Each structure stands twice: as C-alpha cells, then as structure tokens.
Amino acid sequence: MMDKNAFNNPLRLQCMSLPELCADQIAGVRKGIEQGVPDDMLKKVRRVIITGCGDSYVAAMAAIPAFRKFAGRFGNDFSYERAIDVARYMPFDKIGGENTMVIGISCSGGPARVQEVLRRANHYGCVTLALTNNPSSPVAEEAAYRLIVNTPAFENSNPGLRNYYASLTGLYMLAAKLGEVTGCCAQGSMDAMAAAITENTAAWAGELERIDDHMYRLAETWKDFSVYDYIGDDIQFASAFFMGAKMVEVAGKMTATDDAEDWCHIGFFQKCPQNIGTVIAADKKATDRTRIGETVGQAAGIGRPVLLIANGNKDDFGISADIEICQVPDAPEGFEFLLAMMNYVPGAILAGYVSTLTSEPFFRGGGVWAQPGNGTIRSSKIEII
Questions:
Q1: Residue 176 contacts residue 185 (beta carbons within 8 Å)
Q2: I want to staple 219 with a disulfide (CB 3.0 to 4.6 A). Which of 30, 55, 322, 353 is the partner?
Q3: d(C-alpha 321, C-alpha 279), whole Å
Q4: Residues 252-266: pLDDT tens digits?
Q5: In whole angstroms, how far apart are CA 212 and each of 208, 220, 236, 310, 359?
C-alpha cells in the first residue's frame, strides 16, 4: 500500500478540521442570530420554507427534523423545497404574508436562483432570511434579514464541506431559537442544541484517523470505478446526496443518488455491477433499517462493491453479506437528527482520495467548464412570476 500522505487533498483536510471548527462555528452562528434575526420577527412565524441549490438544498432537508422537534406546535408548518420550485411554482399568492418565512441558503451568496427565491418571496409579502457566510453577497442583499454564519477562513475551502457543516449549524440553532421565541420549547434550548452539536462533533474527533485510514484503503480498490451509487432514506438521503456531489466535483465520476426502495426498483438493473461503487448511509435507530438490510443484500448479491456508513454494525440491519462497513459515532440522545451532520465525512474523504489517486483535478481544473457562458449558476436570468 502506498503512503496515504502522498495523496492528501483539500477535501480531506476540511473533513479533518471539523472538530477544531466546531466551537468557532457555534460562536459564529450565535453572533449571526443575535445581530441579524430579531425575536419580534420570529414571534410571528408559523410557516417556514427552506431552500437552496445543491448542497444547500440537502442541508435544508437534513434540518427539517430540528424545526419540527423544537418549533412544531400551534399548527406550525416546515418544509424544504427545491429552489426552482420555490422560485417558479410555489403559490405565494395563497401562502404569503408575515407568518411565512422563506430561508434561502447559500454560503457564497452567489446563485441567481436563491436570489430569485428571496426576491419573489418579498414580492408576496413573506419574511425573508438569507443564511450565508457572505454579508455583502447578492443573496444577502435580497433578504429582509440575514443570518451570517461567520465561518472562519480556511485555505483551499472548495468544495465547501465546511460551509455545509456551517449551514447545518445555523439551521439547527435557528430551529431552537425559533422554538424558544414562539414558546414551543423551553428557554435554554438553543444552548442545549449547541451542547449537542459540540458533543456530536467531539465524538467524531477520536474516530477520524480510523475512518481516514479505512477510506484510503478503500479508495485504492475503488479508484478506477467510473460509476458510483449513493443510497439513503429520509434525512440520510441528504448525506448520500452530499457524498455523491463531492465525488462528481473532485473526481469527475458519474454518480446517482436514490432512496433504498427506488434503488431496488431501478438502480438494481445497471449493468456491470462489479464496477459500481455503492455507498449507503443509514441509521440503526431508523424505521427503515430492515429495508436498508434488504437493499444491502440485494446489491451485494449481484456483485456490487458496497460500503455501508452507519452508527451500527451489520447485525443492526440484519446483513449477512460480505461488505465494507464504516461504523460512525452515534448522535446524542434526543438529537438523533445530528447523525446527518457528519456522516457524510467518510464518503467525502473517499472522494478526495479517489481524486488524488487518479490525478484528477478538482472541478476538472478549469478547461471548458470554466469558459464564459458555460456556467449559469450566477448568471441565470431572474424572473418574478
């Protein structure tokens, strides 16, 4: 086996930095809430719509359980939506008003579609909040309120794994703050959320070297696969999606993300199964665990190389097949949704090593992907429908 240190990369370094980032990130979010999210505004909120593009969209997905747990009373409603759906299809003429808060997530603050979401929500009288790390960005300027997450600078911060962690921290703590202000949960809940995030991240600190070694060994075996599948149910879909996105961005591989049920209907039939790296994110406490076990067995049965990332072992899912399993720390009791706050780390480390082992530059190193006109994330026309 080659020395893994020769294949170090920015994505791996971001993963390894999360325990050190934790305290500063919590402090940064506290500052952002104190300075940009007034209690008087939150007291009126009864509906929250959270959206973003790419990683920010699945951050919204992962955060919804926290809003339901801490602010889910008095008929309050919470949903995550794709940015294009909020920008072009959502019937704000029927659900707009000061009781509806639309949160647009973008740490960079650049995507045109998130700008459009906030501008359209403003047009229909909603309360708008930008969750961002860039206070002078176009997204921040479109919102009536801004939660600046204040993520510390980091050399080689692309792709934005630390930004994803920051977005989740911001959303989780905002959920607890909303609950406190509206009387849906006890005072001190935001402190409890911060303590749980700290405990959760600290549990990972002692496991990162083991996980890193495991993912490097696996990358040596999987590096030549051209196709990767990622599977997750409920909020574990967010982690699956995030891991798949990193594999595309840094290693240029073809990927797909699906839930366990749909994969068994469709993804199962892809040809050359022995050459498809299959990564499954799962929670041993979730009600889908038997279906996850069946899906793992089905994938292994056709010769798929399988990596299960879970807070348990094969017995917890009824798995007998010979697969790779990366066991990760469990989330603190009462904060089970925090499993999705970091269980994408193994898949991100794997993607980083696949990139460097194959000498594939992050984001293709420019080329046609960087030529003017070939990217419309920031330049897409904004229309208010």
A1: yes
A2: 353
A3: 15
A4: 999 999 999 999 999
A5: 6, 13, 21, 15, 19
The 10s digit of each residue's pLDDT in 91-109 is 999 998 999 999 999 999 9
Q: What is the pTM of this model?
A: 0.97
Structure tokens that stand for 329 in this block: 């720390």
Dist. CA 257–CA 249, nearest whole Å: 15
Which residue segments constitute the domains of the chain, with CATH numbers given? Answer: 4-204 (3.40.50.10490), 207-363 (3.40.50.10490)
**16-63 pLDDT, tens per residue?**
999 999 999 999 999 999 999 999 999 999 999 999 999 999 999 999
Within 10 angstroms of residue 160's Cβ, the number of other Cβ atoms is 22
235-250, pLDDT tens digit by residue?
A: 999 999 999 999 999 9
Count how many Cα atoms sit within 13 Å of the Cα of residue 228 in the half-sphere of its side chain: 29
Separation of alpha carbons 45 and 126, rounded Å:
10
Is there a contact between 300 and 306 (Cβ–Cβ < 8 Å)?
Answer: yes
- For 277, phi then psi, to 5°, come to -70, 125
Residue 373 has pLDDT above 90, yes or no: no
CB 227 within 8 A of CB 254: yes
Q: Are 280 and 324 in contact (CB under 8 A)?
A: no
Residue 219: phi and psi, rounded to 5, are -60, -35
Matching residue, tokens 């990193």: 246
The amino acid at 67: F
Contact 237, 58 (CB under 8 A): yes
State how far the Cα of 7 lies from the Cα of 359, in Å rounded to an integer.
Answer: 9
Name every residue whose Cβ is closer than 8 Å to that of residue 3 and which is 6 or more positions away in sequence.
none
Q: What are the CA-CA distances from residue 206 to residues 150, 211, 225, 281, 336 (Å)? A: 26, 10, 30, 20, 20
**Cβ count within 10 A of residue 214:** 18
Q: Is the peptide bond before 346 cis (omega within 30 degrees of 0)?
A: no
Yes or no: say if 304 and 331 are a contact pair by the CB < 8 Å rule: no
* CA distance linking residue 350 with residue 223, whole number of Å: 9
